[in-house]
Specification:
Helix Hairpins, OB fold (Dihydrolipoamide Acetyltransferase, E2P), alpha+beta, D-amino Acid Aminotransferase, Chain A, domain 1, 37% helix, 7-stranded antiparallel sheet, globular, 6 domains
Length: 665
C-alpha cells in the first residue's frame, strides 16, 4: 500500500469507527459486532504504526496512551461550575416556581426536566472541533485536568460531528456527568470477586475514583460512560430543548428521559415516573433537575451565591426497606476483633440487592435490640452501606431470643473475650488463620501493593508459601505459579509489583504492622514524634503517653505489641527481606501550628487536601477528621459543608487558604 493509499484508508477507517461510536453510544443502535469493530480498530492501529505521520489527536487509537501522570494539573473553569438548590416536596417546588416568577417578572413555564445522574461532573472543552481539555468540577472555579482519562471513555467524542447548515464555534464547552453503568459495574465486581480482590461499594464513588487514576489504562478498563447536560457555545439556540438536539448532533448523548412540561402537575408526574423507574435504569439517579427552558430568562434570573436561580434539583426521598433478620454472623479482623453482621432476607434498596447489614459492635446490637427473626427497617447511609435503622417490635416473633456475644472465635474456636474498657470482642488465639490473612491483607494495603486479594493471600498461607506479611518480599515467580489465577506471566508481574514497594515511609510501615488501636493518624503522630522505628520500639509507656492524643489504651497497645517476641521477629524479617523504612521529617523549630489541631474542609484552590495535611504535620500540627471542642482551627475551602457550621456553632476560628498558608510560613 502506497503512502497516499494508506492515508485514504486511514481516513475511511476513522470515519466508519466514529460513525459506529455515534450510532452505538448516542443513538443506542449497534451497526456491527464487537469483533468486527475490533478488527477495524486493529487495522487502523497497524496502518498508523506504519505511517505515524497520519496519527491525529482524535484518532480512535489515541483513546488510551501515554505514560501514567505523576499528578493532575489544575484547570481554571471559564465560568464556574455551580451547585444546585435542592427541594424535597411539591410545596417546596411550587415555592421555587413562585420565586422565579416574582424575580423574573414573567411566567417561568415551560420547564425542562431531566434525571439527576449520581456521578462525577466534568467539563469538556473543544477547540476548533477537537477535544482540548477535560476537567473535574473541583471547587467550582478550579478543577483537575483529567483529559487523558476522559479520552478512554467511548461515549465522549474526540472530535465534534459536523452540523448541517451551522458552523461550529472556535470554542465549545460541554458539561455532563461521568457515570459507571450499573451492568458494567456489576460485571467488574463479579470479576474482582472471582479473582479474590476487594469489590467496589457503589458505581458513583467508583466512577469518581476511576477518573482520578493517574494511569489512564486503569480508567480504560472500567467501561465508564458520559451523559451531557449543558452546552456553552453559540449555535443560535434559544432553549434547552434546542441544546439537547444540538448536543446529539455534535456526538453526545444527552440525559435520557428528559422532557418539557407546562404545569406543576405534569412535572410532579414525571418526577414520580422517574422515581418508579430508577431501579430499572442502567445508571444511578437521586432526583430530577428542573430548569427554565428559555435560555435568556435563565440568564436573566442570575445566581444567588453559588446556585443559579433558574434550576433546582427535586430530590427523591431516602430509600428504605423492611426485611427480616435471618442470622447474626461474627467476622474476624486482622487484630482478632469480632464484628457482627446481620444476614437478612434479600431486599432492594437504591437499585441493588441487599443481603447484609452492618451492626458495628455489641453496643449497637444492644441499643437496637436486634434479634434473629426480627423485622427491621434498612436504609443506606449515603447510598453505600446498608444499616439497620430500627426494629419493628410489634412484628417480633414469639420466642425470639436476645442476641448474646460469642464465647469463642467462629473461625478457629479460640476463646473470645471483651477487654476492660473495650467496645470490641477479640479472639485471643494469636495463630488464628483469619487474623493472619487479614493482617497480611492490611499490610499489603499499607504498602500500596496492587494485585493481591484475600483469596491469593489465603492460598499463600494455606500452602505454607508465606507465614507472615514480610515473607511476601522474598516471593519468587515459581512460588506463585500453580496457584489459582497465576500463570508464568501473572506470577512474574505480581513479584515485580511487590518488589517495587520495598521502600516505605515510616508512618505507612507502622500502619502496616497492624498494631491494635493504631490507625493512620496515630501512626503519623508516632513517626513525627519519635522520628525512627527504633525510637518507637524502645519507647517506654511513659514516653508514649507524653504524646498528645495518645492515652493509656493506645500507649499500652504499642508497648505490648513491641514487647511480644513474634512481633519483634516480624519487624526483623521485614529488614532481612530487604524492606527499607524511611525516617520521618521532624519539626526543628516551633511554629504557629505546633501542637494545634486542624480540620480541613472544602476544596482548596492551590493545594490538594493531602498536601495541606502534610504541611500541617510538618509544621508540628495535628489533623483531625471532624470538628470538636478540641479543634484549634478549621481551614475552609469552597463548598465546606457541615464542618464549617459546626465550627461556627462551637466558636472555632476559621482560616481561609491564604491565611492558612501565611500561618504555616
Amino acid at each position: 500500500m502506497t503512502k497516499s493509499e494508506a492515508h485514504v484508508r486511514i481516513e475511511q477507517l476513522r470515519e466508519v469507527i466514529a460513525e459506529h461510536r455515534y450510532q452505538y453510544h448516542v443513538l443506542d443502535q449497534a451497526t456491527m459486532s464487537d469483533a468486527a469493530l475490533d478488527s477495524l480498530k486493529h487495522e487502523l492501529y497497524q496502518l498508523e504504526q506504519q505511517f505515524p505521520e497520519f496519527i491525529t489527536a482524535d484518532s480512535p487509537t489515541q483513546r488510551v496512551g501515554g505514560e501514567p501522570l505523576p499528578k493532575f494539573e489544575k484547570v481554571i473553569h471559564a465560568r464556574p461550575m455551580l451547585s444546585m438548590e435542592d427541594v424535597f416536596s411539591q410545596e417546596e417546588f411550587e415555592a421555587w416556581v413562585k420565586r422565579l416568577e416574582k424575580v423574573g417578572g414573567e411566567s417561568a413555564w415551560p420547564l425542562f426536566c431531566m434525571p439527576k445522574l449520581d456521578g462525577l461532573a466534568v467539563s469538556l472543552v473543544y477547540l476548533d472541533g477537537l477535544l482540548e481539555t477535560a476537567a473535574t468540577r473541583g471547587n467550582g472555579k478550579i478543577g483537575e485536568n483529567v483529559t487523558q482519562n476522559i479520552k478512554t471513555i467511548q461515549s465522549i467524542p474526540l472530535s465534534l460531528r459536523k452540523l448541517q447548515g451551522k458552523k461550529i464555534p472556535h470554542r465549545v464547552e460541554v458539561r455532563g456527568e461521568i457515570y459507571f453503568p450499573v451492568h458494567a459495574f456489576e460485571e467488574l465486581n463479579r470479576q474482582l470477586e472471582k479473582e479474590g480482590k476487594p469489590i467496589f461499594a457503589n458505581p458513583r464513588n467508583t466512577a469518581a475514583g476511576s477518573i482520578r487514576q493517574l494511569d489512564p489504562a486503569v480508567t480504560a478498563g472500567r467501561k465508564l460512560a458520559f451523559i451531557a447536560w449543558d452546552l456553552d457555545a453559540d449555535f443560535g439556540q434559544t432553549s434547552m430543548t434546542e441544546e439537547w438536539n444540538i448536543l446529539t448532533q455534535l456526538g453526545f448523548k444527552p440525559a435520557p428521559e428528559s422532557q418539557v412540561f407546562d404545569s406543576v402537575e405534569t412535572v410532579e408526574a414525571h418526577w414520580k415516573y422517574l422515581q418508579k423507574k430508577r431501579d430499572g435504569l442502567n445508571y444511578w439517579v437521586d432526583g430530577m433537575v428542573v430548569r427554565v427552558n428559555h435560555n435568556q430568562m435563565y440568564v436573566n434570573l442570575g445566581v444567588v451565591g453559588k446556585t443559579p436561580r433558574g434550576l433546582v434539583a427535586w430530590k427523591f426521598p431516602a430509600e428504605e426497606s423492611t426485611t427480616i433478620v435471618l442470622e447474626i454472623q461474627w467476622t474476624v479482623g486482622r487484630t482478632g476483633a469480632l464484628t457482627p453482621v446481620a444476614v437478612v432476607e434479600p431486599t432492594w434498596i437504591g437499585g441493588t440487592t441487599v443481603q447484609h447489614a452492618s451492626l458495628h459492635n455489641l453496643d449497637e446490637i444492644e441499643r437496637l435490640d436486634v434479634r434473629i427473626g426480627d423485622t427491621v427497617i434498612l436504609y443506606k447511609a449515603g447510598d453505600i452501606i446498608p444499616k439497620i435503622k430500627e426494629v419493628i417490635g410489634k412484628l417480633r416473633p414469639v420466642g425470639a431470643k436476645k442476641t448474646i456475644p460469642p464465647e469463642s472465635c467462629p473461625v478457629c474456636g479460640g476463646r473470645a473475650q471483651r477487654g476492660e474498657g473495650e467496645v470490641a470482642i477479640y479472639c485471643t488465639n494469636p495463630t488464628c488463620f483469619v487474623q493472619d490473612r487479614e493482617a497480611t491483607l492490611h499490610a499489603v494495603r499499607a504498602f500500596e501493593i496492587d494485585g493481591i486479594g484475600p483469596s491469593t493471600i489465603a492460598a499463600l498461607l494455606e500452602n505454607s508459601i508465606i507465614s507472615t506479611p514480610a515473607d511476601l518480599f522474598v516471593l519468587q515467580p515459581g512460588d506463585v505459579i500453580g496457584l489459582e489465577g497465576f500463570a508464568e506471566l501473572s506470577a512474574q508481574k505480581l513479584v515485580e509489583e511487590i518488589q517495587k514497594h520495598k521502600s516505605i515511609a515510616l508512618p505507612r510501615f507502622i500502619l502496616a504492622l497492624g498494631i491494635r488501636n493504631v490507625g493512620e493518624q496515630t501512626a503519623i503522630d508516632l513517626a513525627s514524634h519519635f522520628g525512627t522505628l527504633e525510637n518507637i520500639m524502645s519507647a517506654s509507656l511513659e514516653e508514649l503517653m507524653v504524646l498528645e492524643g495518645i492515652g493509656d489504651v493506645v500507649a499500652k497497645s504499642v508497648r505490648d505489641y513491641f514487647e511480644e517476641e513474634h512481633h519483634q521477629s516480624l519487624v526483623a524479617s521485614y529488614f532481612t527481606h530487604g524492606v527499607e523504612v524511611g525516617e520521618q521529617k521532624q519539626v526543628s523549630t516551633q511554629t504557629h501550628a505546633t501542637g494545634k489541631t486542624f480540620v480541613v474542609t472544602g476544596t482548596l484552590e492551590t493545594l490538594g487536601r493531602d498536601e495541606a495535611k502534610e504541611m500541617i504535620r510538618l509544621a508540628g500540627g495535628k489533623v483531625a477528621g471532624s470538628v470538636s471542642k478540641k479543634t484549634d482551627f478549621v481551614v475552609v475551602g469552597f463548598n465546606p459543608g457541615s464542618k464549617l457550621e459546626t465550627a461556627n456553632t462551637l466558636g472555632i476560628p476559621t482560616l481561609s487558604e491564604s491565611e492558612f498558608i501565611a500561618m504555616l510560613s
